[in-house]
Design a protein that fits this description.
By secondary structure, the protein is of the alpha+beta class. Helix content is 35%, strand content 17%. A two-stranded antiparallel ribbon has the order 1-2. A two-stranded antiparallel ribbon has the order 3-4.
């Protein structure tokens, strides 16, 4: 079985947990928790700007590497 990742925070979702949101255009969003669902859908936040997401830390590390060189 394929490992699912949360569309917002990037964490792996255990089988049998999380939720699946289907957008009007037919694309799928796997969300691990209510926290991710509210931030992504209700508040419409960008994962790059939310400090607790993996995407934020990845962009932060890329910026650090770019400044060193």
């Amino acid at each position: 079985m394929a490992v699912r990742k949360c569309h917002f925070c990037g964490k792996e979702i255990e089988p049998g947990s999380g939720s699946l949101y289907i957008k009007k255009d037919g694309s799928l969003m796997n969300l691990c928790s209510r926290k991710c669902r509210v931030n992504a859908l209700t508040l419409r936040r960008v994962a790059r700007k939310v400090r607790w997401t993996n995407e934020f830390h990845n962009t932060k590390n890329l910026k650090k590497k770019a400044q060193k060189h």
